[in-house]
Design goal:
631 residues, alpha/beta, Rossmann fold, six-stranded antiparallel β-sheet, globular, binds adenosine-5'-triphosphate, Spore_III_AA_AAA+_ATPase
């Protein structure tokens, strides 16, 4: 599709002194004009992607500058102003007394179709960070992403619009953001607070934000991502590499820490004792380095790329180019330095590039291990859940309280494929159905289907219900399985939940069962359990899991104890109950008994969602009940 551009250029020209206005009107390539620059005592200039043109014959005067200032909106504390209902941005330079001595008038445009380059990634639901030099078109791309997600993907999108640049000046957002909602920010310094407010008050599925630039904003971004909301944002910096070494913002891509290895470990790794490692999971799973309107380099797995960068290994990225004439997007895999990946495509038994609906795309394998795995998936067809033990009979699975629950004979578990002490009882069982749901402890099943008939799609879309999303994505990433975590229960192929939730609220999963989705039940929120479940589904050997778990645990600091934390569990349950009341038509929800401290947190959370809450009963059974506020 060719781009459709709305630029309301006339509205900006009307604010300029008449001679400059006329000079712009005489330009042939006005539709490519980026900025008009007025500096006191100099000739006015027009900036194009290719260079500048002169727009006046006499130097700019104070009167010229005042002419413009009188016709535009008020300047904010960031020295930026706009023109109501347009996307233009006018930035001022002032002398030491505050008087305007220079103006940069940027022509804002809504460019429909500019998302083409990364549309597939945006729709996958991962958080995306867009980098690029000033003026490369980041805000324009962000605006189009907001519109497409709101209007075409029907998502609840909130734009946190610090300088009113994404949705334009004035209180009514520019149609360039479609149905996305916009929150204005009174003072730039409050951007981080508005980001959090957006999540707490307006239930967005996606938050769009221009220019994450401070530590507080980076921290707010992490909080938002941890709440399972997709973030699409821009930040200063041209590349993932320079963001990583920027102390203020490196947390966005996982951050760096120095660790000291023991002598033995250093010898084994052939490294020095003091090495640099990624500190945490990146807030943004994907980084897009925008190079121009039609070119970008995409890092689809930021965690992996950062790990490789820190180990001094070559990194592999995708270079995406959009053909201006045909609109077709081409994807090339490149290594550091922009070289094609040698041999890519040749050894995989498939074409190097694939053409789908005008989109030329490659296969997205990552490391060698995953590479092998995915290519074996291709040659053998996707494996279904591994074969059920032919001997039949029941299987005893220990539940949380170390008692044993008997699963009906139709519900069969796989013979264990290894006996690593790490997984022990956590090993996921693969179950067939025809059982009262309350009999289930942990396992994977699909309603009314023999387990062996289940064949996951090429990418398994998983909807987490009470399960920690970060750990889920980290476990899939480390195992190298094609799992996408979605916020949309309907589009999911599988629902992953905890035994506790499943026991207490099976009705939540009834819809998923009716739609014959795969249901994965974990005993608790640990990476080890998640990996075992995925391993079962994707037929991954045990040693790969143990290796991957060891890495994940080191990176995330994961441990059973941390996730058995009753406080965290209680708050997850509260969030879930609130979700039920707000979205599922329940009028009340009663929470499990909890101590006074947790009850206080539960009341606070309910208040943030404008719900009423009361404590009921006597200790130790005192519990919080949440009600929908009367309309
Ligand atoms: N795809 C496009 N087609 C036509 N014009 C575009 C396109 N993308 C951006 N522009 C124009 O390029 C200029 C710079 O774009 P934009 O403001 O989005 O850049 P930016 O990277 O956000 O800049 P900054 O970092 O300074 O905020 C604007 O005039 C915008 O209208």
């Amino acid at each position: 599709m060719q781009h459709v551009i709305t630029d309301d250029l006339e509205a900006l020209l009307a604010t300029l002194p008449p001679d400059i206005h006329d000079a712009v009107n005489r330009l042939e390539n006005r539709s490519e004009l980026l900025e008009i620059v007025l500096d006191l005592g100099r000739l006015a200039e027009g900036r194009f992607p290719e260079g500048e043109v002169i727009l006046s014959t006499t130097p700019v005067t104070y009167a010229d500058l005042e002419y413009v200032v009188e016709r535009i909106g008020e300047f904010g504390d960031d020295n930026r102003a706009g023109i109501e209902r347009t996307l233009h941005r006018i930035s001022a330079m002032r002398n030491r007394k505050g008087r305007v001595v220079g103006l940069t008038c940027r022509i804002g445009r809504a460019v429909l179709g500019s998302i083409a380059l990364i549309r597939d990634i945006v729709e996958q639901g991962q958080s995306i960070l867009i980098l690029g030099r000033p003026g490369v078109g980041k805000t324009t791309l962000l605006r189009e992403i907001a519109r497409v997600l709101a209007d075409e993907a029907n998502k609840r999108v909130v734009v946190v619009d610090t300088s009113n640049e994404i949705a334009g000046d004035g209180d009514i957002p520019h149609p360039g953001i479609g149905r996305a909602r916009r929150m204005q920010v009174a003072r730039t310094a409050e951007q981080h607070a508005v980001m959090i407010e957006a999540v707490e008050n307006h239930m967005p599925q996606i938050i769009v934000i221009d220019e994450i630039g401070t530590e507080l904003e980076a921290a707010a971004a992490r909080t938002i991502a941890e709440r399972g909301v997709q973030l699409v944002a821009t930040a200063h910096g041209n590349s993932l590499g320079n963001l990583l070494v920027n102390p203020t913002l490196s947390d966005l891509v996982g951050g760096i820490q120095t660790v000291t290895l023991g002598d033995e470990e250093a010898r084994r790794r052939h490294t020095q004792k003091s090495i640099q490692e990624r500190k945490s999971l990146p807030t943004f799973a994907v980084v897009v380095e925008q190079q121009s309107w039609d070119e970008a380099v995409v890092h689809r797995d930021v965690a992996d790329t950062v790990d490789n960068m820190l180990r001094g290994q070559a990194i592999i990225a995708e270079e995406r180019t959009r053909d201006e004439e045909t609109g077709e997007v081409t994807v090339r895999r490149i290594t550091t330095g922009g070289m094609d990946v040698p041999g890519w495509g040749s050894g995989l038994g498939g074409p190097a590039r694939q053409q789908t609906q005008g989109f030329t795309t490659s296969m997205f394998e990552r490391s060698d291990r995953n590479h092998t795995h995915l290519s074996s998936l291709r040659s053998n067809g996707l494996p279904g859940v591994p074969t059920v033990d032919p001997r039949g009979g029941g299987e005893r699975v220990r539940n949380r309280n170390q008692t044993t629950a008997h699963i009906a004979p139709q519900v069969q578990a796989l013979a264990p494929t290894g006996t690593s002490p790490r997984d022990g009882e956590a090993r996921a069982a693969v179950l067939t159905q025809s059982r009262p749901v309350t009999d289930i402890t942990e396992g994977i099943f699909q309603a009314n289907e023999p387990a062996s008939d289940f064949s996951p799609p090429k990418t398994l879309k998983v909807y987490p219900f009470g399960v920690n999303r970060d750990r889920l994505s980290e476990s899939a990433r480390q195992l190298g399985v094609p799992v996408l975590i979605t916020n949309n229960e309907r589009e999911a192929d599988a629902v992953i939940t905890l035994k506790n939730y499943y026991r207490r609220q099976p009705e939540r999963l009834q819809q998923a069962e009716q739609e014959r989705k795969l249901i994965i039940i974990l005993k608790n929120n640990t990476i080890a359990q998640m990996q075992h479940a995925f391993a079962r589904i994707f037929d991954i050997p045990e040693n790969a899991i143990d290796e991957a778990s060891a890495i994940s645990d080191r990176v995330t600091g994961d441990s059973e104890t941390e996730f058995d934390d009753p406080g965290k569990q209680a708050m997850l349950e509260t969030e879930d109950a609130i979700h039920q009341v707000l979205n599922k038509g329940l009028t009340t929800a009663e929470l499990a008994p909890a101590n006074a401290y947790i009850r206080r947190l539960q009341h606070q959370m309910a208040t943030r969602y404008n719900l009423i809450s009361r404590s009921r009963g006597k200790e130790p059974y005192r519990r919080v009940k949440i009600f929908r506020a009367r309309d």
